[in-house]
Amino acid sequence: MYNPFAVALLALEAQKVVELRLMKLASGGAEGWAEAEQMVSEKVSALVEASGTLMMGGSCDTVVGRYREHVAANTQRLTAG
């Protein structure tokens, strides 16, 4: 079973990253392009990591926890500077 509270928090936290990324993408230029490339790369890496975790017997809670760590790191990176 999974923790629905953690999933709800992930959804709320991810919305901030979506907002920050959309602003960066809308600004265009080299920074917008770099963000788009990084976003796609992160999505592929997250898929591989989550799939590997589940295939090795990891729980959904573990996957959600790692996603929350990635979201927190992106929030920090996108709000710095």
Describe the structure.
Helix 1 runs antiparallel to helix 2, helix 1 runs parallel beside helix 3 and helix 2 runs antiparallel to helix 3. It contains 3 helices and no strands. The protein is mostly helical. It is globular and about 45 Å long. The model has no long low-confidence stretch (mean pLDDT 95).
Summary tags:
88% helix; mainly alpha; 81 residues
Task: Give a summary of the structure in a few sentences.
With 81 residues, this protein is mainly α. Helices cover 88% and strands 0% of the residues.
Class from helix and strand fractions: mainly alpha
Low-confidence regions: none
Overall geometry comes to globular
Largest sheet: number of strands, sense, barrel closure: none
How large a portion of the residues is in β-strands, by DSSP E?
A: under 5%
What's the total count of β strands?
Answer: 0
The percent of residues in helical segments reads over 70%
| Distance linking N and C termini | 39 Å
Radius of gyration: 14 Å
What's the pLDDT, averaged over the residues?
95
Number of H/I helices: 3
Assembly annotation: single chain
Task: Tell me the series of helices and strands, N- to C-terminal.
Answer: HHH
Strand and helix map with partners:
Blueprint: H1 4-27, H2 29-55, H3 60-79
